[in-house]
Amino acid sequence: MKAKIKVTLKTGVLDPQGKAIEGALGHLGFGGVGEVRQGKYFEVELAETDKAKAREQVKAMCEKLIANTVIENYDIELG
Amino acid sequence: MKAKIKVTLKTGVLDPQGKAIEGALGHLGFGGVGEVRQGKYFEVELAETDKAKAREQVKAMCEKLIANTVIENYDIELG
Question: What is the DSSP letter of A25?
Fold first, then answer.
């Protein structure tokens, strides 16, 4: 099973990389661009075939290693 | 409209960050973990309300700035 994990900064946490991209898009001539937020994305191959167990396992991975839950949210998609 | 963009390394491109996470997960006691690949994730707020035009605009942003199409793939989701 493959887990797809999106890690995003929580609302209110400053995102200077996102701001830089926002500025760069404006300089490149893209109009109507509002806020840009940058996050991280991970794909993890799992041996586990049970969806509920896989979700538990990936949740533990996010809490312990992949996301900094003080400032980041994570979203898990299995498939 | 909000565009959600996933940028991933193309198959065959080495991913040392992913490998490091794979190793770290093993050290933390997570079993059955196969390949880990790290990518990037972006959320872009757009003034454009037409879905087809928004997709064209985001595609151009990816080609020009957000993704390095030599080594990366991108996937756009609008909503």
Answer: H
Mutating which of A41, A72, A74 best tests the B interface, going by the most B Cβ atoms within 10 A?
A: A41
What does the alpha-carbon distance between residue B8 and residue A77 come to, in Å, rounded to a whole number?
A: 16
Q: How far is A6 from chain B (nearest CA, A)?
A: 7
User: Which CATH number is A42's domain given?
Assistant: 3.30.1280.10
Residue B69 is part of which domain span? 2-78
* Domain count for chain B: 1
**Quick check: ipTM above 0.95?**
no
For B28-75, the pLDDT digits (tens) are 999 999 999 999 999 999 999 999 999 999 999 999 999 999 999 999
Q: Which residue of A has its CA nearest to B60?
A: A30
Burial of A71 (0-12, 13-18, 19+ CB in 10 A): exposed
Please tell me the distance in Å from B11's CA to the nearest CA on chain A.
13
Residues A40-77: tens digit of each pLDDT: 999 999 999 999 999 999 999 999 999 999 999 999 99
**Do residues A66 and A7 make contact, with C-beta atoms less than 8 angstroms apart?**
yes
Nearest to B24 among A42, A60, A65 (CB): A65
